[in-house]
Design brief:
Blueprint: H1 6-12, H2 38-45, H3 60-72, E1 77-81, H4 84-95, E2 101-105, H5 110-119, E3 126-130, H6 138-141, E4 146-152, H7 164-173, E5 177-181, H8 186-189, E6 199-203, E7 217-221, H9 223-236, H10 242-252, H11 255-274, E8 279-283, H12 293-299, E9 306-311, H13 314-324, E10 329-330, E11 340-342, H14 354-359, E12 366-370, H15 376-387
Parallel strand pairs: 2-3, 2-4, 4-5, 5-6, 10-11
Antiparallel strand pairs: 1-7, 6-7, 8-9, 9-12, 11-12
Helix pairs in contact: 1-3, 3-10, 4-9, 11-15, 13-15
This protein binds pyridoxal-5'-phosphate (PLP).
Length: 389
Amino acid sequence: MDKKNFETDAIRTQLERSQFQEHSTPLYVTSGFVFEDAEDMRASFTEEKSRNIYSRFSNPNITEFVEKVVKMESAEDGYAFATGMAAIFSTFAALLNSGDHIVSARSVFGSTHTLFTKYFPKWNIETSYFDINNPKEIESLIKPSTKILYAESPTNPGVDIIDLELLGNIAKKHNLLLIIDNCFATPYIQQPIKFGADLVVHSATKLMDGQGRVLGGIVVGKAELVREIYLFSRNTGPSLSPFNAWVLSKSLETLAVRVEKHCENALKVAEFLENHSKISNVKYPFLPSHPQYITAKKQMKLGGNIIAVEIKGGIEAGKKFLNAIKMCSLSANLGDTKTIVTHPASTTHSKLAVEDQLAVGITPGLVRISIGLESISDIIQDLDQALNV
Ligand SMILES: *Cc1c(COP(=O)(O)O)cnc(C)c1O
């Protein structure tokens, strides 16, 4: 693989040009591909040949998108999916057997938590949870049947940070597969494989698309593991659409500049909110007041675009704030050019019991803000006027 620097890989990794010598990769909307003859078809199906057969297995636009992310994450191989959850589910389903055990951070994305608690037990796959603020307990949860160590950093929606190097060392010592959901950081900010992750999963729906248009997911990492996930997925069908892959591959060309600006805006908003009289707590990885600030600085290039704030006055004050917002959007997505304000307790994490919400740091007054790319003064003005209503 011809690997250059991050921004160059994101822009210059491209399919071979067609006979038209197009500058920008065209969209290959085709369900199937044709064979030269019977021998070509036979060899393709036995995988003696690496080529496109059917878009459930592979497609040129998907290949381009995957190759970019593989380079950006310094991985060996990857496979793309229709959504982030399809990537996460397929990764676990391909690698685990009945009777296997997962050790996971307690604060993970809501639907991932639902996989662990509602669906995996049906197949006799159990999960034990560690508190992200107490990683020392991880080793006490490991059993002979433990196969996967799983975490997100920063977490959704609490923006907690976990020491990836520590996880990498524990996984190595106990011969576990370390899988990291790197969605909030993106490969521009953090590359978990450098700290020992075997696989990295992403919801490409968020900062990778970055403009709130398409859904997508991807897993990258060790080639032999990706191969298992590929074989599972080519037979079960959670594939990414060529159109979404085309959009995502284009989006990656601007990932570095977008993420730089998202993070610059987010740090300014975090500093503003930290001094606001209506706010009792602000959590942002690159604020020195963040409990894991030192770890964040060690493993992240920038602080990300998500801020968690606690509004004084609990649930009522939180609702009043949301209702007073004028420009920013009330939406469940994140990582968009548009600034988005959401209330996890009543939306993304509403399926969790109140005590489970509290266990992962979701208090009734917690508001998650995904800082966008609008003018910083307009973002701050909107948040300020809504807090002061
Ligand atoms: C959104 C998200 C997912 C799920 O991705 P979809 O594309 O919505 O399926 C998984 N993990 C994290 C951290 C997310 O923010």
